[in-house]
Design a protein that fits this description.
- The chain has one domain.
- The longest helix is centred in the middle third of the chain and has 21 residues.
- A 9-stranded antiparallel beta sheet has the order 2-1-7-4-5-6-3-8-9.
- The chain is α+β, with helices and mostly antiparallel strands.
- It has 4 helices and 9 strands; from the N terminus they run E-E-H-H-E-E-E-E-H-E-E-E-H.
Length: 221
């Protein structure tokens, strides 16, 4: 199986601590996106949606409510999916991955703007029970670590820089049709929110190239 890490979205958060609270309610958030498949398929609306998100929003996430949805061209079949978080704080970087389990997988019919109908692969995922427990422990560790790190200066301010990245990585079956294919990825972070589109019909020609290069290396060895 080939592991395609479809997108990793970075939230660069600049926090200042006031004497009244450990976490700032209104943090300045700069949202930028790093697409590891070298595409520009992330909608601008997604960046706008998360423009005001801060550390409080991330701490408030309920892992039981997080969902991922993958939709792809026919025969491009997802076999495994993980939710990933990358935390960089005070020069230290840690990567975390939470396995997702499938809720639903099926083929659906779609119609393009020309009225032509075609089939697509559809799958929906949630964090596994073990992943939910790990996620909650991680939130507790984050909160404790940040609370201990925020010590004010003489003027009662302390500027800290933290980077939080989150994304979805997927594995596709070996017999998937990567030529002239595409895939889209959505994330839903809470029950009261709709799915947010993160990757919009990204073409898979570059993925096919990676497969061919990998097979060539295997043959040479």
């Amino acid at each position: 199986m080939l592991n395609i890490k479809s997108v990793e979205s970075w939230l660069s958060i600049f926090l200042k601590r006031s004497p009244a609270s450990v976490f700032v309610k209104r943090s300045t958030v700069l949202v930028s996106f790093l697409v590891l498949t070298a595409c520009s398929s992330i909608p601008l609306g997604t960046a706008w949606q998360y423009r005001n998100h801060g550390i409080d929003d991330l701490m408030a996430l309920s892992p039981e409510s997080i969902r991922a949805k993958v939709q792809s061209s026919e025969q491009l079949i997802v076999s495994q999916t993980r939710l990933s978080f990358t935390v960089e704080f005070e020069g230290k970087k840690n990567d975390y991955q939470f396995p997702l389990e499938i809720i639903e997988q099926k083929q659906i019919a779609r119609e393009n703007w020309l009225g032509q109908r075609h089939k697509e692969e559809y799958s929906e995922w949630k964090i596994s029970q073990s992943g939910v427990e790990d996620f909650k422990r991680l939130q507790q560790d984050w909160q404790k670590g940040y609370a201990e790190s925020y010590q004010p200066n003489s003027d009662n301010t302390q500027e800290k820089t933290m980077q939080l990245g989150f994304g979805v990585s997927s594995q596709f079956t070996e017999d998937s049709n990567f030529k002239d294919g595409y895939f889209s990825v959505w994330l839903k972070l809470s029950d009261d929110k709709d799915y947010q589109l993160f990757i919009d019909e990204h073409p898979t020609n570059d993925i096919h190239k990676q497969i061919e290069e990998k097979r060539a290396q295997t043959t040479e060895n």
